[in-house]
Amino acid sequence: MKKKSQKYKDPGDIRPKGVMTATKTISTDNSFLYIIKKEAKKISVPIKENSIEPLACLDYSKELEIKNRSLAIYLKQNGISVPADKLIQSPKPRYYRTTSRRRIIVKHGKTYLCFTNILNNSDADGPETSILEPTDHESIYTSLYHELNSSMYSILGKCLNYIIIRGSYQEYIIIFNFHTLNGPVIRKVRSIVDSIKKVCDKIIGTFVYFDPSRSKYYLEIERPESSFQVKKISGYDNFQLKIDSKKYFVPPLSFSQINESCLPLMIYTIKNMLNNHTRKRLIDIYCGYGLFSHYFNDLYKEIIGIDACRSSIKAAQLNSKFNPSAKTNTFFRSFFIKNGNCNTILPVPGPLIKEDIILDPPYNGVDKKTIQAIALRNPEKVIHIFCNIEQIPIALNQWKNYGYTAKKIMPIDMFAGTPQIEVIVLLEK
Questions:
Q1: Mean pLDDT confidence for 160-188
Q2: Torsion 17-18-23-28 (CA) sign
Q3: Domain ranges of the chain
């Protein structure tokens, strides 16, 4: 008998580019989550079954052991013969998340800040908390909880969908996601912002985001054209990330990895996989604000970045000014990638121009026509990044149809404390 699917609830997931999910459905039939639960049971390690962070209660060495064993089993069961390297550890296995959010629930006149749309404790006298988030996040949410339950700001609780914290370990942007927005609400937001800035001096910007549909996504991508998407209330337009000598400005709606401590390790891994000596062009698909494009801008003569999010592309273009390269021509284009249409805006491939491709798609993966279109360009190397491990067998089978096979599989514990990992796969003909 087929087992029922299980929902894994994530306290601050932002991995789908442009669309950020509150829940993810994962089948228990030989899924990675199911295998993790079995392996934990074998070594008598208890995990929190219904928790948003089911592995966070473990000693980190035990968590790594379970994940490494589970990944090996998962790949073997799915017919993937290339063994994965040992999981790259997160330098910060706890208190690492640079994006978090709370769902606003109002019940019996009281405003609650919850991980999901389910109120688990009506007697709570504070927001729900996570040991995967920096302590500053808890301080900000606690302050907001008390303010929203005061008579002065109770109107905001009735109009809010979510409160979101985004940024780096040094800078935070607060986003208020509203289903009802008007002049009095905006004035109250300006006032409450002044209050929470006293709690944490790392807050460098605040925004309001309008989602009248009250969707399950906490930054909705599909919205009426007549409505505005985001409005700055105070502070800066972007937060900053620094990786080695590179500096990035990231807008509040742009995709960024939630574990800043893992970013250098991720970049070094990809650089080693590319091992570029002779190739001339890099195509960075789902490039976001240009994380890889700018870091590798001394390795190629030409780099082209593509992303559907216009604010991300504007940020990537801005970041070109702060990460100049005399060796590389870098171009960024806003384009919705679907059904193999990416070649319509890319240069015609040819035998004289060798290419590498980095593919860092949303949680739901890449459609098969896009994989076909990329493969027909005949790139020397493809780096396919998976934030959803369940997409790996599907994608590798599709790549195999066009002569590309996995040469190296490198997992990174980007989501420590949860039953998820980031996986980087090197594909070659």
A1: 96
A2: negative
A3: 100-240, 257-428
Q: How confident is the model at residue 327 (pLDDT cuts 50, 70, 90)?
A: confident
Q: What letter does residue 183 receive in the DSSP assignment?
A: H
Rounded CA-CA distance 47/39 in Å is 11
94: DSSP letter: S
| Average pLDDT rounded to a whole number, residues 171-183 | 95
At 3, is the pLDDT very low, low, confident or very high (cuts 50, 70, 90)? Answer: very low
- pLDDT score of 9: 39
Structural contact between residues 309 and 315, judged by C-beta atoms closer than 8 angstroms: no
d(CA 237, CA 207): 9
C-alpha distances in angstroms, 20 versus 84, 127, 307, 341, 404? 28, 21, 16, 24, 31
Kindly indicate whether the domain formed by 257-428 is annotated with CATH number 3.40.50.150.
yes
Rounded to 10°, the helix 60-77/32-42 angle is 130
Domain 100-240 shares a fold with domain 257-428: no
By C-alpha distance, which of 413, 429, 428, 424 is closest to 61? Answer: 413
Cα separation, 54 vs 262, whole angstroms: 20
Cα 4 vs. chain centroid, distance in angstroms? Answer: 27
**CATH ID of 100-240, from 2.40.50.1070, 3.30.160.60, 3.40.50.720, 2.40.30.10:** 2.40.50.1070
Quote the tokens at residue 309: 């999010």
Beta strands in 5-109 (DSSP E): 6-9, 23-26, 100-107
For the chain, the maximum distance between any two Cα atoms, rounded to a whole number of angstroms, is 69
Asked if residue 423 lies in contact with residue 410, where contact means CB atoms within 8 angstroms, the answer is yes
CB 289 within 8 A of CB 250: yes
Sheet of 110-114: strand order equals: 110-114, 100-107, 160-167, 172-178, 203-210, 230-235
pLDDT surpassing 90 at residue 281: yes
Residue with tokens 């190629």: 300
- Kindly report whether the global pTM for this prediction surpasses the value 0.85: yes
Angle, helix 368-375 to helix 392-400, in steps of 10 degrees: 40
Confidence bin at 227 (pLDDT 50/70/90): low
